[in-house]
Amino acid sequence: MCSECARERIKVRFPGKIVYSSCPNCGAIKVKKRWEHNDVDSILLQAGTSLVRADDPSFIISGKSLSRIDEQRGILEVSVKVSENFTFDVRHEVFLRKNSESCDSCNRKIGSYYEAILQVRFTFPDRFQQRFRILDGLMSMVSKESRNEFVSKVAEVQGGIDLYLGSKKLADRMLRSLNATYPGTMKITKKISGRDDGRNTYRYTHLFRVINPSRGSVFQIGNEICVFKCAAGRKLIFVRGIGKQDISMDPNALERAGYRMLAENAEKVRLNVKAEGEHGSLLINSKSGDRISFDGYLPSGEMEFTKYKGKLYPLGRCTK
């Protein structure tokens, strides 16, 4: 059977019209009940092809193209496979009816919908630079590809910031990033927000508490006085005094040991260190000329110390 005879003998029924909705905010397209973010003509070609019928349901119908005549009309072309060796193409004019409707994602954004709250708290008075750096890093993690990933609100609260997020998956990813980058502790809680199809729906709260003392702050950890030196990844480095080994602790270990800050702005001094003999060192205050000898090794050169209740704690240069 030639293609001309096939067109005459085999009846192919096309839809009279293709009805679709377009979101005026983001351009998403909905045919039937599903919103898609793709080329509109590709979506309409797929939708129109699904409505084409042939006499024999065993014939395979596949879409080839949708050519626009104008905004309300188009030429739909499909391929009808009758057998392994015989296929023919059919074209037909269809009407295109467009409705304007906001998509589900845009409705959530406009309505300040959120599925999770990410709470970032600073254990000690936070610095503007650190707060800005953390917020900027979190906002860069919002995927432009996923319509459910959005920040509906950012609120500054006492001690930190709250981010209201459209997706729990986004909150999970942000929390993991914070935990891998900054020393701190995290916690996830949830509460019932409603029911959907007979199941409970939840809203989640992700809390990350940043432990962010300033360099030289004095702490009591357990029964020992220490001075914060620096953060190395998630580790917090504390100085115990001249000649003593530094303490390296992760935030969870610090919480278990028990700690409290005794002084955030303790006195800092810069002293020149010179070797004195094989096992001794000499500290020289270049301003006052005072000299302090002690048994123990410190590298020669100028070093920074925290002075607390008459005791010196060498800060030196913190290297990760």
Give structural attributes.
6 helices, elongated, alpha+beta, 320 residues, 6-stranded mixed beta sheet, 23 strands, 18% helix, 3 domains
Which stretches of 5+ consecutive residues score pLDDT under 50?
none
What proportion of the residues form beta strands (DSSP E)?
over 45%
Helix share bin: 10-25%
Whole-number tally of structural domains: 3
Count of β-strands: 23
Structural class: alpha+beta
| Biggest sheet statistics | 6 strands, mixed
Averaging pLDDT over every residue, what do you get?
82
Strand order of the largest sheet: 4-3-2-8-7-6
**Principal-axis shape:** elongated
N-to-C SSE series? Answer: HEEEEHEEEEHEHEEHEEEEEEHEEEEEE
Query: What is the CA-based Rg, rounded?
Result: 34 Å
Number of helices, where a helix is a run of at least 4 consecutive DSSP H or I residues: 6
What is the terminal separation in angstroms? 79 Å
